[in-house]
Specification:
about 110 residues; mainly alpha; Arc Repressor Mutant, subunit A; two-stranded antiparallel ribbon; 5 helices; 2 strands; about 60% helix; globular; transcription; Transcriptional regulator
């Protein structure tokens, strides 16, 4: 399994610029959904799968491995949880989520 890693080629960057490696990781299906859900607290595999609705067990397993390898989530006694690095990443992404909601509203108003 190939994990996005700074300094190695990733989608969008032959040199593996750190921000591009991060965007490669976060751009994979359900990666952001897993992070967003775990912000609410630890979760079991089954609860993550229920939350992500259409995710296959194989895809969820791969995302968990990738996010764990990146140091964003970890396995705890209560299930999977964000690490301190994962919490920091969520705090950085949260304003992006707010911006996206504003942008979506503006785009929807533009179409009407």
């Amino acid at each position: 399994m190939k994990f996005p890693k700074p300094g190695e080629p990733v989608r969008g960057s032959k040199t593996g610029q750190p921000v591009m490696a991060l965007l490669d990781l976060l751009g994979r299906s359900w990666a952001m959904g897993v992070i967003w859900y775990l912000k609410e607290g630890p979760s079991t595999f089954r609860k993550l799968q229920e939350h992500c609705e259409t995710i296959s067990p194989t895809t969820l397993n791969v995302r968990i491995k990738e996010l764990t390898h990146a140091g964003v989530i970890e396995r705890t006694l209560d299930g999977y949880a964000l690490t301190s690095r994962g919490e920091e990443l969520f705090e950085l992404l949260s304003p992006l989520g707010a911006w996206a909601r504003k942008w979506a509203k503006e785009m929807n108003n533009k179409e009407n």
